[in-house]
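2024-03-11 09:14:02 DEBUG pipeline.ingest accepted 1 chain
2024-03-11 09:14:02 DEBUG pipeline.ingest length=167
2024-03-11 09:14:03 DEBUG pipeline.predict start
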Amino acid sequence: MTKSKRLILDKEQIAQITRRIAYQIYESNLAMKKLVLVGIGAQGFELGGHIAAELALINPKLKVDHFMIALDKSQPNGTVELQAKPSALEGTSVVLVDDVLNTGKTMAYSLMAVLEAEPAKIEMAVLVDRGHKNYPLSATFSGYQLATTLEEHIEVKLGKNPAVYLY
């Protein structure tokens, strides 16, 4: 039996959530002159790009850098590569960005990579928080909280036709 996908968030809702997260990040970092968004994997990087674009609309004078952490989300304890020089994060406010927060394992390994750069502050932003925490981490900025069973899956599609599905 094939599970059918159920639309959870459409294009407009994702845009609204992204805008709200950007405002929350901005308000949380009013004293900062520079902000670094670090996307976890391709999806987190793309979501971080959307948030960076919204931040540029909110305050064009705010310097926002945008980097990626490359890792295999199915095996996050493998190679975790911050695709930026550590000096780019040192002493700054960093926001780790991911599409879905599930157990927190991916976020935990990504956090370790960022901590090595010694930022002044680290926050976390996610589009969807499933709430199945196995690690003592929670998102500072969460777009949508969704209680799911362990058997259910969340699929986030960004790009041309953004949507979030539950199946």
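2024-03-11 09:14:41 DEBUG pipeline.report The chain has three helices and nine strands.
2024-03-11 09:14:41 DEBUG pipeline.predict end
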